[in-house]
Amino acid sequence: MAAHRIAVLAVDQVVGLDLGIPAQVFGAARDADGVHHYTVDTCTPGGRPVRSTAGFTVLPDHGLELLEWAETVIVPGVHGDATIHPDVIPTEVTEALRAAYHRGARVMSICTGAFLLAAAGLLDGRRATTHWAYADRFRRLYPRVDLDPEVLFVAEDRMFTSAGVAAGIDLCLHVIRIDHGSEVANRAARSCVVPPWRDGGQAQYIERPVPQAPGTSTAVAREWARQRLHEPVSLRDLAEQARMSVRTFTRRFRAETGLSPAQWLLHERTDHARLLLESTDLTIEQIARRTGFGTTAALRQQLHLRIGVAPSVYRRTFRRTPDVAGSR
User: Fold this and answer.
1) pTM passes above 0.85
2) Is 5 helix (H, G, I), strand (E, B) or coil?
């Protein structure tokens, strides 16, 4: 099957990091034989060079004609006038975005790229997000958008928006998961050395500091627990694996992950249950036991809290049939 075609639209004052995210993350999405699932190209209005916020100029290979055939269009974040005066956004840009969406393309924004989608009228009446620091300005300019600055990303129909910086990575991995399932998304995440999944509904403000040096990290305990998700795992067990007191372990664990040990373990069990729902024929009762929930009721409750659906609904939504999986 031909690779899915992605167009990244850069305008003047494009955020350098945001611009590189799609090519890096989608470029890491490959099948078991190493075949790429996506092609990623960059375009600008008129194919002209544009300035980035990182002190370099973008020299694109394409103009806006790229949006005429791309299956997914991504708008990276932008600083400067485009987030203050909508009338400075070139009409050719807003028209090209509207045309891409109306012909059936999936349209995405990273960070303040949502300002361009809103200027094109594509977010009117929709729930969307952007970087929390720009929320007040966004609401003043685009009151018809249902802005939710508390989440990492919003996926609604064929319109996807994300919060700032690293949330763009989360959104790209989410799209890979939708298109090709958890195995491919997790492989891409490992290649990019990032967490395979953070819920879109997770708050933007969670702190995730760089871990301590290996000798003082809780990473060993986390890996130990991942191998025993089907067993009872206590806080004392985890602290012993890290050779720390419970108090020290709890403090360092939260500093490294942004979560308490209990919250982290619950997330790990839920994510493993999702993977089993997608990739195996195990019954929901068997999955509940293998992931440490014990009962289908407990698994159902946690899935509903995390993603708002029951296990059976999640399986129908994300499970790949043999024919579809084999054709990719």
Assistant:
1) no
2) strand
